[in-house]
Amino acid sequence: MIDLLNIKKILIVNTRSSDRKLAGMVMWGAWAVASYYKKTIKGSNVKFLDENNEDDFLEKFKEAVKNIELVGFSLTSMQIKYTVPLVKYIRENYPKIKIIAGGIHPILFPDQDYGNYFDEVVTTELPKDTFDYSLLPEQVKDVYRKKRAQVVTGFNCSYKCAFCINSVRNKRYEGVPVEKVLADIDYVTKEFNPPKIYFRDEDFFQDIDKAEAIIDHIIKKKYKFTWDTSSRVTHFMPGRIDDDFLPKMVESGCRQLRFGVESGSQRVLNFLRKGQTPEKVKFAVSQCVKYGIHATCSIMTGIPTETTEEREETYKLIDVLSSYGSLVDILGPQIYRPYPGGLLYEEVKKSGYKLPDTFEGWINYYDESPVGDVFDTDVHYPWLSKKENKTLPYVWVVSHYGLNYSNSKNLIKRLIGLLFKWHWELRWFGGWDVKFFMFLRKKFLRTDLE
Ligand code: B12
Ligand code: SF4
């Protein structure tokens, strides 16, 4: 085991996870680790480099490793491809540098053969109670100032949806103590004066008392930022998010909630162990609309065992939700992409879907089996028919642009919207126009779902 107490010069690296950089995003795991080492190792000099948020990342990385004792890589499975070349560079040029890895990939695959890439692979979480703002990349700070800051209010979730990592890791909700959240809000407001704050949480209202304390604090301090967060639809009930609570939320600046709607079929929702009904979804979304809050509805299709009729139930639910008006954003339905972990992953394994069993097997894994990007159209999932593999990757583009754009004030957006709405009404997820649009969209407008 590496004796970290005798190591002072540390570099924590977060590489990109696909050919597309996730610019402006906060990479919580790597930031937590860099902050933890900086706080706990006396006299340490800790640097944090996130490829998503650096121009000339490679040059900066090469410069940084010249004078470093230990490099720690934060790894999701998709980052392995981009991490290995950096590890090889260090091994070849600076053999004395110790290299460690940690993150969700080692946590999910603690027994995998990691070869000689790392001197140590950490398969547990490090404490995540400090996020040192001086380590946050400048590009992220800029986003905090101009667009949206983030404040963490909780980690994980006590539900166990079959497709979610929470069901594999058997995690429970870990709320950040309310005093800490309030102090963080005060700090972020003073330091960055953000127009908007995203409360990073898998389910912000899981601790409703904490949610209320945060809302009261924002009102008391008369902060002007708006805020958004993620919620389960099931919190919309008397005594939780109800007609007494919603006006307070709005007063405090709540303008958007994100919901995991997933499916319009009760059978599929039960299969996913989602613990919600389409009626609950409709109620939550209509309540948001009533109070002027945007409801972003994230929806999936191509779920193992889902039938054509059940898919149509999802499309019908989408029609109902979008009929509530322009405050409803339909995100998806995106094709279900299996990532390792989750009960649903056990299901896809039955259809012959296989993940690599060695660390090296992951390096090019996603080249042939593209997951992780809404623009992936070349999918070959064994639980789907040939036709479904061809058409389902285009469903989100038809619904997203057809339903969200067709009433736009911008003429070009409206024309695109009307064309796609026509496709949507015919349930026609093909045609050269859709494919050509997807091609252009992927080439020129890759960063946001605009
Ligand atoms: C918030 C979130 C995001 C955010 C922020 C991502 C980030 N890296 O912080 C955004 C929106 C950017 C995002 C994007 C994506 N995400 Co995401 N995301 C999450 C989510 C919900 C929470 C992550 C988080 O904030 N955790 C809190 C931090 C503090 O914990 P942590 O990252 O695990 O880090 C701790 C330990 O792992 C360890 N550790 C971490 N790094 C290191 C390094 C060293 C050296 C050491 C010693 C320890 C160590 O200590 C840390 C502190 O305790 C997770 C699900 C989950 N609950 O884990 C999915 C998850 C990580 N995402 C996932 C995916 C697939 C993606 C995307 C590919 C999605 C997409 N289609 O683009 C991208 C890839 C981004 C990337 N490179 O990480 C998958 C990863 C699956 C896998 N096998 O790797 C997960 C697990 C969800 C799932 N499907 O199950 N995501
Ligand atoms: S999908 Fe959402 S509600 Fe379900 S376990 Fe995951 S974080 Fe919790």
Which regions contain 5 or more consecutive residues with pLDDT less than 50? none
**What is the CATH H-level superfamily of the largest domain?**
Aldolase class I
Helical run tally: 18
Q: What portion of residues belong to β-strands?
A: 15-25%
Largest sheet: 6 strands, parallel
Q: Can you list the ligands bound to this structure?
A: cobalamin, iron/sulfur cluster
Radius of gyration: 23 Å
- Which structural class matches the secondary elements? alpha/beta
Average of the residue pLDDT scores: 92
Classified by CATH, the class of the largest domain is Alpha Beta
Task: Report a brief summary of the structure.
This protein is an alpha/beta fold. The chain has helices spanning 28-40, 57-64, 80-93, 104-108, 138-146, 165-169, 178-192, 208-221, 245-251, 266-271, 278-290, 308-322, 343-350, 365-368, 386-391, 395-405, 411-426, 432-444, and strands at 9-14, 45-50, 70-74, 98-102, 120-121, 149-152, 154-155, 174-175, 196-200, 226-231, 254-262, 294-301, 328-335.
Secondary structure layout plus pairing:
Elements: E1 9-14, H1 28-40, E2 45-50, H2 57-64, E3 70-74, H3 80-93, E4 98-102, H4 104-108, E5 120-121, H5 138-146, E6 149-152, E7 154-155, H6 165-169, E8 174-175, H7 178-192, E9 196-200, H8 208-221, E10 226-231, H9 245-251, E11 254-262, H10 266-271, H11 278-290, E12 294-301, H12 308-322, E13 328-335, H13 343-350, H14 365-368, H15 386-391, H16 395-405, H17 411-426, H18 432-444
Parallel strand pairs: 1-2, 1-3, 3-4, 4-5, 6-9, 9-10, 10-11, 11-12, 12-13
Antiparallel strand pairs: 7-8
Helix pairs in contact: 7-8, 8-9, 16-17
Iron/sulfur cluster is lined by residues 157, 159-161, 164, 166, 202-203, 232, 260.
